[in-house]
Specification:
Blueprint: H1 23-39, H2 43-69, E1 74-75, H3 77-88, H4 95-107, H5 118-121, H6 123-127, H7 151-158, H8 160-200, H9 220-225, H10 232-237, H11 253-262, E2 267-268, H12 275-278
Helix pairs in contact: 1-8, 2-3, 2-4, 2-8, 3-7
Amino acid sequence: MPVPKRVPHVAREDERPKIVTGVPFWGIHVVAIAGVIATGWSWSGFALAIGFYYLRMFGITAGYHRYFAHRSFKTGRVFQFILAFLGTISTQKGVLWWASHHRQHHRYSDGPKDIHSPIQRGLWWSHLGWIICNRYERMDKNEVKDLVKFPELVWIQKYERVIVVLFATSFGVWGGFWAFLWGYCVSTVMLWHGTFTINSLSHVWGQRRYDTTDDSRNNFLLALITMGEGWHNNHHYYQRSAAQGFYWWELDMSYMILKGLSYVGVTSGVNRPPRHVRDKTIKNTPPSEAPVPQAAELPRAA
């Protein structure tokens, strides 16, 4: 299946970088870099940053992406809220906003209507430009009708900025500027750019096992820093799978944790793709059409 070709784009006024509302985003970058230079390197600080990097990365990969956007496994409302909270403190906007835009991305992946395709708009736009402009500030609630019926998700979406501020402030209360610098600022900058590589680099760098309608690629390095999201061609080929690493050697920490939680009853339906689907590669008769993801049931609203 051919990858969509680049279509000339006429830039819109609302696609320019935000000035005032972009100050916190760039400010955290400045504090992270200047703070480390001013106070010096700290191995314990770096360990704190890495710990909160991967904790919140799990909120994005397992929560925002695999559960809320794709509903690739099942869980109860308590763990559903925990996943939404972990995604929220990642400082990548609210759960409903994230799921809404990601579902649009898959509908138009690498085509002219894709909101962050490097094929259409280049690496800068796909990595960062689309998220620091005004055009995509609002979300389409029609994309997340299955999620807005949960009042706790609507609530956490509404107060996501307050939650982030309280989370960031808690580091300073606990450990002063050092904890705020490493636990929030450095960790968050790393988390932002680690996550953003999936929108940008995972569509230009790596190998293609499956013949999808976009230019998604598998990349081991990106899978390491994103807890399995780097197996991006696998994911675009078969979106219903809770595992994005289809083979045992494709490390997917998010899947491993979710599978472990299934043994104690926290999650269920945490599955890999069927073998007959998995083995239909580009080299041996690709499917005429990528399997349509079937949403798993979410817990019933009270």
